[in-house]
Amino acid sequence: MRCVVLGLCLAACAFAQKWNVQYFYDELHARMELTEIAFPSAERGVAIGAIYASPEERKPKSIALVTSDGGAHWDIVQLKEYPRSIFFLNDSLGWMVTTNGIWFTEESGRSWQKISEQIKPDKKLGALPPGGRILRVWFLDPKHGFAVGFQKSVFETHDGGHTWEPVAEAAKPSSNPAHTVYTRIVFTDGKVGIISGAYVPPRGGADAGVPDWMQPEKAVHRHQVPILALLLQTSDAGENWHSSTAPLLGSVAEVSLAGVNGLSVFTYADSFEWPSEVYHLDLTTGASESVFREKDRRVTDSALFRGPTAFLAAVEPPGKLFSTPVPGKVKMLMSTDLKTWTEMKVDYKAVATSVTLAGPDPEHMWAATDTGMILHLDPAK
Hints:
Blueprint: H1 2-16, E1 18-24, E2 31-38, E3 45-52, E4 61-67, E5 75-78, E6 83-88, E7 94-98, E8 101-105, E9 113-117, E10 134-139, E11 145-149, E12 153-157, E13 165-166, E14 180-188, E15 192-199, H2 216-219, E16 227-234, E17 242-248, E18 251-258, E19 261-267, E20 276-282, E21 288-292, E22 298-305, E23 309-316, E24 328-335, E25 342-343, E26 345-346, E27 351-352, E28 355-361, E29 364-369, E30 373-378
Parallel strand pairs: 1-26
Antiparallel strand pairs: 1-30, 2-3, 3-4, 4-5, 6-7, 7-8, 8-9, 10-11, 11-12, 12-13, 14-15, 15-16, 16-17, 18-19, 19-20, 20-21, 22-23, 23-24, 24-25, 24-27, 28-29, 29-30
């Protein structure tokens, strides 16, 4: 009975909290697209993306949104290259991956210095990605870090990102590098780490390169095809990595770790029964189980803290297609046992096709949308 009462109290607390829109870029004929957000402390935060001056704009203005007072004020910082991702080690030191380089800040994102050029694609492999090969970085300390990306790329640095060396284990899975990409990297406790990726052969025939939302009749009947998922794991801060592969339905959209727990977000094709599914990972036993899936909730990100306390950011698809570019209502969910999820209140103005989460702890949570909004989780009144 005590557990039931505690669960009801936690659910009531989650529902009493509300995600409010604290920033919205609202300029006539222009739009802002935010692709990622980081909040290394309660006061300092950075979101990255671009501003499109008009609906037809093909060369957007790359920007970062920066706050140093807990979101009370946001400043737009102009960037010289399009940002792909950011990582902050603390509230001052951060790295940004762009299409053409890797940048470093000591001023919480208010100024950036280019520290290395992007690692260029290998022409011999074919299927050249735009820009360089690196998509994301993760640093264990100011000097030691890792980078992941296109063409089966995993690199390691011992000088803060100025120079990089390939991680040999990443090349061991038997997949064509031209169509293999490592997309996610995450560590917990500074030692246990996971790098996830996939081999996805290109779609052939007349449908090659055509997004599903442009051919909805075909998309809803196209079967979900298994992909070859790649996984690299370490328990000693990357000194040794172990690689493995498995055929899986869906693509890994996000991985988050905290202590002995992990969450993995999978997304599926438009013809699948659910738009996404979230799995709980037991880092002690290696077991995994599905903990969330709903037909009208497409999860795009997760945040996990010790306790455990977890958040899911989702979008309610406005139509039958999960992949439609039309924004849907933003939905947020919370759990304190990684099994039962409570839907939280969200500002009715919040719409998006993708939402990312960030926060130093469960009491200071933020979200950024690809529609130019930043949401803040206000405490229960």
